[in-house]
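Newbie here. two chains, one complex. Structure please?
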Amino acid sequence: DQQVKQNSPSLSVQEGRISILNCDYTNSMFDYFLWYKKYPAEGPTFLISISSIKDKNEDGRFTVFLNKSAKHLSLHIVPSQPGDSAVYFCAARRSTDKLIFGTGTRLQVFP
Amino acid sequence: DVKVTQSSRYLVKRTGEKVFLECVQDMDHENMFWYRQDPGLGLRLIYFSYDVKMKEKGDIPEGYSVSREKKERFSLILESASTNQTSMYLCASTTGGVQETQYFGPGTRLLVL
């Protein structure tokens, strides 16, 4: 049972435009959400997170939005750059339980 | 900066071999994790450990075991490697706590022939 889902396996965006990566979850008890970025042959690196008490968190070009009623999370990257091309994983957790990861979305930013 | 290192970046083993994957972190983290990453399946948790000599099964523990004799070191063992264990293996560590983030090693790409 996939509790965290990323329904788009890939996304292609032109440099300078907005990238929107989506994530849905089923467990309403999740209270902390994270996005990780992964380049080929490297481990994932933490990108941005959001607590369930917020609906938005921003860090530079990256913004995460949380819609608890829809159980939906999104990551916006503005403007997109070629170096953003990577696989993005969303993850969720309830309290101090283990993280549950989504299946990943491969973002390609082309010139 | 937190550093998580894994003993090998690439490994090629034969079916039936015993395989050891080692992970070391240098930040005195209590919690350590082993995941495997496969296309279309994301990161799946194999085993984790919240303390020395302590281990708990993750979502896919079958065919694997782990060892944590020291706080900084967490080993993943494939007792008898099989071709379906060909994958990218990722180790992670974290301090624990409500708003923790996990720090990952560079990964070991294992090919079982």
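Moderator note: DSSP finds no helices and eleven strands in chain A. The interface with chain B takes residues 6, 9, 32, 34, 36, 38, 41-46, 49, 51, 89, 95-96, 98-99, 101-104 of chain A (CB under 8 Å). Thread marked as resolved.
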